[in-house]
Design brief:
This protein is an alpha/beta fold. It has one domain: Rossmann fold (3-Layer(aba) Sandwich), CATH 3.40.50.720. The chain is 38% helix and 16% strand. Helix 4 runs parallel beside helix 5. It is globular. The relative contact order is 0.15.
Length: 252
């Protein structure tokens, strides 16, 4: 069992409400589990409704705790403004406010040079990784509590360049710029905005990015989730603006 999974709940986020996009696998699922162990109420979203149902059932009764939390699972395609609107229409009768937003939904594309990358692939990656972050954030701000926290999962690709990943890199560089502007706009509301930049993490995205990637050298989603939780739990007058979590052994 990982260090993160072995920790007992201390209910430090009891009564808080967190929305996690891309919540059914990888970093999104790991962060959702970490928040649940702290008795945080959850709004989980992803495109796969059956996976959402399975995960919400698991997290309603977190491991290592006797607590029961409220979990709202709602399928949503973050690329679609109408789907995002439907998500928030489902949220409002259940929750009057939002304390934590985890913008985690993201996709990659096959490693291809620019002259081989199709425009539909380009559009799909930008729509998910950049437009989706904007759409969900904009809708969330209407109910975001003063003193809340927004975490945008950007990837280390947000400030680096990897040949063959033009759309992915463009989306993450754009999301980093968006995150920086958002942070400055929300300072008067004391809403913290954290750019999460994990290095190579052992998730399914590598099946698309690099199928032969050496997973043994990667960090676990649980390690990233623990770093996110620690950042959220900082005192309200402190923040981590850029959170890099990297393999201690160096790059792959």
């Amino acid at each position: 069992m990982s260090r993160a999974n072995s920790k007992k709940s201390s209910a430090r986020l009891r009564g808080n409400v967190a929305l996690v996009t891309g919540a059914t696998r990888g970093i999104g699922l790991a962060v959702s589990r970490a928040l649940a162990r702290e008795s945080c109420n959850l709004i989980l979203t992803a495109r796969d409704a059956s996976a959402l149902s399975r995960v919400s059932e698991e997290l309603a009764k977190p491991r290592g705790t006797r607590a029961t939390i409220r979990v709202l699972a709602q399928a949503c395609d973050v690329r679609d403004p109408h789907s995002v609107d439907a998500l928030f229409r489902a949220i409002r009768p259940e929750h009057s406010r939002l304390d934590i937003l985890i913008n985690n939904a993201g996709i990659a594309h096959a490693n291809l040079p620019v002259d081989k990358l199709s425009f539909p692939a380009w559009k799909d990656v930008l729509a998910t990784n950049l437009d989706g972050t904007f759409l969900v954030t904009q809708a969330a701000l209407a109910i975001m509590r003063r003193g809340g926290t927004i975490v945008n999962n950007l990837s280390i690709a947000a400030n680096r360049v990897f040949p063959g990943s033009a759309a992915y890199i463009a989306s993450k560089h754009g999301a980093l710029g968006f995150t920086r502007v958002l942070r400055e706009e929300l300072r008067p509301r004391r809403i913290r905005v954290i750019g999460l930049l994990p290095g190579a993490t052992d998730t399914d995205i590598w099946k698309v990015l690099w199928p032969q990637a050496p997973h043994r050298k990667m960090i676990s989603p649980e390690a990233v989730a623990q770093a996110v939780l620690d950042a959220i739990l900082l005192p309200s007058n402190a923040t981590i603006e850029s959170l890099e979590v990297l393999p201690s052994g160096g790059t792959l």
